[in-house]
Amino acid sequence: MSIIERLGKQAKVASRDLTKLSTVEKNQLLLALSDALVKSSAMILEANAKDVAAASEHGISEVMVDRLRLTQDRIEAIAEGVRQVADLTDPIGQVVRGYTNLDGLKIVQKRVPLGVIAMIFESRPNVSIDAFSLAFKTNNAIILRGGKDAIHSNTALIKVARQVIEHAGYNPDVVQLVEDTSHAVAEELMVATAYVDVLIPRGGARLIQTVKEKAKVPVIETGVGNVHIYVDKFADLDMATKIVINAKTSRPSVCNAAENLVVHSEVAADFLPKLEAELSGKQSVEFRADKSAMPYLANSIEATDEDFATEFLDYIMSVKVVDHFEEALDWINSYTTHHSEAIVTQDISRAETFQDSIDAAAVYVNASTRFTDGFVFGLGAEIGISTQKMHARGPMGLEALTSTKFYINGQGQIRE
């Protein structure tokens, strides 16, 4: 029996066990997990230090190492995310609608678990606990396959979770970690239709594309963020500067960080030097600019077509100057990965048109794209940010991990 077959069979059994748990029992366990994570900080940080050291030895950039690194504050933030999930309304069993049809059948549509969720993700070890807490609250078993760069961290975090579950008297196989990080095992998970009800990939473009091409299990596409900020000719340039700097530099390795700057030609001469000056002494950003933008930047290189389509996840930003509002809309819709996009403008009509016209899960007016996050949106921890349109879109919280089922009660009716 292969690793995936074993984990899959165990997950199927665990998912059935989960249906017996009440909201109170689930919340109590999540609160116990939250406390246990903080108490286990030393063990978790020791494991994480091994991953960080290995990443540094392999020449991984500091920006990418930051995705991997855990600190006491970050562990406490993970624990707080678990507490937030415990506080959220449990969607399982919620009645979506109920009615009596013409045949006298009483029909109720209720929210139910998906069953077994598999998740393939990269780098960020907090994802393992975020994903488990959401899956558990919605009575789903979950199989996690993280990247080899975070194997020690993920193992430590899931060890804590399983210990808490077992101590509570429940089946610890509600959460399982694939400890073999080979591509072959990951690909086996992608086709495990006998055990897995839905697969969620969370990572870079290469991972997402691989899963889309090879998976036979239904996939919810998440993550890739080729994010734009458009500075309109009616923008407050002080506001625009603050927003762009935050969206690009506060944490460039995450999917809601801005990668592309689009600027109206009527403000480019004022805005781009202002932005570059504000960044000076704070954080060096490499601008890859089109020919119209380059004269306004003291330090830039000419952008390629590939640059405009790239999620850099680094202190790099492409810059495009446009002559018309409609050109900005067309440009963004041509290069968007449907994650998060923003406009900075004081023109209400343009703001509304931008939000209606841009095809993305989250569309901002006068705010940083860094807010696209389940925690910030009030969903508690998130299992990912869906960039597709079927089933779920945007930050995926509890409701996104449910399906519905029809409950029908009759009194002997037959269909003539």
Automatic annotation (TrEMBL):
Annotated localization: Cytoplasm
An example Gene Ontology CC term for this record: cytoplasm
Reactions catalysed: L-glutamate 5-semialdehyde + phosphate + NADP(+) = L-glutamyl 5-phosphate + NADPH + H(+)
Predominant location: cytoplasm
Aldehyde dehydrogenase domain mapped to chain residues: 5-279, 303-378
Pathway annotation: Amino-acid biosynthesis; L-proline biosynthesis; L-glutamate 5-semialdehyde from L-glutamate: step 2/2
Keyword annotations of the record: Amino-acid biosynthesis, Cytoplasm, NADP, Oxidoreductase, Proline biosynthesis
E.C. no: 1.2.1.41
Main enzyme class: oxidoreductase
InterPro entries (UniProt xref): Ald_DH/histidinol_DH (IPR016161), Ald_DH_C (IPR016163), Ald_DH_N (IPR016162), Aldehyde_DH_dom (IPR015590), G-glutamylP_reductase_CS (IPR020593), Glu-5-SA_DH (IPR012134), GPR_dom (IPR000965)
An annotated Gene Ontology molecular function: NADP binding
GO BP terms in the entry: L-proline biosynthetic process
Gene3D superfamilies listed in its UniProt record: Aldehyde Dehydrogenase, Chain A, domain 1, Aldehyde Dehydrogenase, Chain A, domain 2
Similarity field: Belongs to the gamma-glutamyl phosphate reductase family.
Function: Catalyzes the NADPH-dependent reduction of L-glutamate 5-phosphate into L-glutamate 5-semialdehyde and phosphate. The product spontaneously undergoes cyclization to form 1-pyrroline-5-carboxylate.
Protein name per the record: Gamma-glutamyl phosphate reductase
